[in-house]
Specification:
about 350 residues; alpha/beta; Rossmann fold; 3 domains; three-stranded antiparallel β-sheet; 15 helices; about 15% strand
Length: about 350
């Protein structure tokens, strides 16, 4: 790839329009890397979370969960380090124990503005973020999982425990109410994107819920953009134990339809043995690329060294992941500004 000049350069200002869809730590990690490459970033974030501090605010204030949104804005923020620390600060005790200050700030803005997406836009201005962060919908939604044995559970925070009890795979998830209306700006961002990214993140609780919002899957499938699934590095306890990469893709297609993915970007760097051992004790292992099944699915697989070698967790390196994504787009998409 030709030399990149960084933020403020013409290439950054005119960089590809990217719609990154997901939630949780995986999405915010990817955004930290991508914001160095293009100004034109849109994070489209699930609002089905009902656990932890987000769940408390959702229950007490009747607002959509702020946690995943706040994480993405924190990743894209252009503020002093102390402000970033403040956003992620969690109160250690009392009734606010475990609550992030950034969640409270977004909750206050939600009280000032008429709608949640307006509150998110207001906080984005305060933080001078690169790009934009959008909730996939403004509607109050819950996530229900159905297991292969027919059992069901309502509430994202309940899925982990229920799956452990049932000891079988998740068959499907759905939103309640079914097919809520997408935020118009969300569909607009997908339609205008040059590159659409799904993941990385929890398969059933961070990525797929976005595909269940009215119009989102259709918008992705009908887009001429390059559509990339950024594969997780590990399986996830209480969600995808025993899954291979093909199992992940199959679940995405069951919920989002055929044609939702063109290319899968997967990690090729071995996970540190000590880190892998710790994950194994939690019933999680490095994700297996079962090539024979993947070939039959007609989706191209691209491998790059993506796992961080400086973290005690098996997570993506933001800079490595961003570079791999941009190189992939240069090879497959319209990267005229980088020539």
């Amino acid at each position: 790839m030709s030399e990149y000049k960084g933020k403020g350069s013409l290439r950054w200002e005119q960089g590809p329009r990217i719609a990154a869809i997901g939630g949780g730590t995986g999405l915010s990690t990817m955004l930290r890397g991508l914001k160095e490459w293009t100004k034109n970033l849109t994070a489209i974030v699930t609002v089905a979370d009902d656990g932890g501090g987000s769940g408390m605010l959702r229950h007490d204030l009747g607002m959509p969960p702020p946690g995943d949104i706040r994480n993405c804005m924190q990743a894209l923020a252009n503020v002093e380090p102390i402000m970033e620390q403040l956003l992620g600060y969690r109160f250690p005790e009392g009734r606010l124990a475990g609550q992030a200050f950034g969640n409270l700030l977004l909750a206050a803005l939600n009280g000032i503005y008429d709608t949640f997406d307006q509150a998110v836009a207001g906080m984005s201005q305060v933080l001078a973020i690169s790009g934009q962060v959008l909730p996939v919908t403004n509607e109050d939604v819950a996530l229900e999982a159905e297991f292969e044995n027919g059992a069901r559970v309502l509430g994202e925070s309940q899925i982990f425990r229920c799956k452990k009890r049932q000891d079988c795979r998740i068959r499907r998830v759905r939103l309640v109410p079914d097919r809520p209306k997408a935020l118009p700006k969300t569909l607009e961002a997908i339609a205008q994107a040059d590159l659409i990214l799904l993941g990385p993140g929890s398969l059933y609780t961070s990525i797929i819920p976005n595909l269940l919002v009215e119009g989102v899957s259709d918008a992705i499938r009908s887009s001429s953009a390059l559509k990339v699934y950024v594969s997780n590095i590990m399986t996830q306890e209480g969600e995808t134990e025993g899954y291979t990469l093909a199992d992940h893709l199959d679940a995405l297609m069951v919920h989002g339809g055929e044609g939702i993915i063109d290319v899968v970007l997967a990690n090729s760097r071995p996970v540190d043995p000590a880190v892998a051992d710790r994950y194994r004790r939690e019933d999680a292992v490095p994700l297996v690329l079962d090539r024979e099944r993947l070939d039959k699915m007609g989706v191209e697989i691209v491998e790059r060294p993506l796992v961080s070698d400086t973290s005690e967790y098996a997570r993506h390196c933001p800079a490595c992941l961003a570079r791999a994504i941009m190189e992939l787009y240069q090879e497959r998409g319209d990267m005229r500004i980088f020539h």
